[in-house]
Specification:
Growth Hormone, Chain: A, single chain, mainly alpha, about 0% strand
Length: about 400
Amino acid sequence: MKNPFLSLKYPNFRIYWIGMNLSLIGSWMQSIALPWLVLSITADAFKVSLVAAAQFLPALLFTPFSGVLLDKFDRKKILLLAQIGMMIIASIFSFMVFCEIYSFEKILSLAFANGIFRSLDSPSRQSMVKDLVGEPQSISNAIALNSMSFNVTRIAGPALAGLVMALWGVGFCFLFNAISFLGIIISLFFVKISPLNLDAAAAKHGVFSSIKAGISYISHKRTLSKLMLTVLVISTLVPNYNVTISALVKLSLGADERSFGYLMSALGAGAFFGALFVAVFGRLSVRRIYLCASLLGLSLALIGAVSSFVWAGAWLAATGFLFVATNSSINSAVQMHVSNEFRGRVMSIYALFFIGSTPFGALFSGFLVNCFGARAALAICGVASISVLLCIFYKFKKAHSPLR
């Protein structure tokens, strides 16, 4: 059993972690306010999925290029640029809502712009962990601690967002998010990172050659390939909560925004304990990662199989636990299996699979909700994720069988 706060002994990581916590509550408030705003003005779950897709589509388009930038230039400066950009977008959202000049088209455009900055944000944060903690043996704890704080704010953010929306309206959620970015932006000015050993080949060759080299690096490592495909499947089919759960609450359970916030807080509570589990006991073995990924699909399907608000919250908590335990362990395993000169590109592909798959998952979930309802959509996504994962595991086992 390990000290879950072990990585906070590093000053760089401690400063960054405090700033990140201040920022994440606001980000979660916006993540709750945005789908609710869209659903309120359109009453269309598919349009909610379009906004979710617009937020994550840039990750699909630009994340591989951001990985090359991270292997060529200062990762801290790239992260700072991303944070400032997202703060500006949140400010525009709040101004638009307060002045009542919003429309679906404007929301869609701002969501896409926000996604562009997120395509820089996620891979830069992922690749900076090793630079912040310094010692390879602390990477797993730092990643788990990041996930833990991420999911503490996932509890607080949605609950606070539901209260703020009920008392003052969605505009204040966007405003609080804009202000909260100052936490991580200020902290980055105090973080001191030694000059990186950047990949000489990435600096010498063109962007597309560097991307190709990164993909080749992953494809020639069996463990990395299998872990990346696992991330792709579960990130496409599972975490479309803004589409499926918002529709479940509003259209199936007939509840209000507070209920939506409570359910998302249940999800966050489970996710917090999943991150705490990894921080205390260490990352899961590769074999257990695959087992948890399969159980994750089952727990998602069971959300759709129940009609009780309490049971929906219970299975959402289980889903949150399994999703974070699986992804935190995959993140740690990937970082332990990658050399530093390829870290930016590998983590950008990880972020591409983790975030860039969301547009497809959101559109697929929105289509299922409109055709069959929220409960059926959750069940179908859960069963589909189990089926695809089993096919991947079977293919890798067959391809590397000693009889072949």
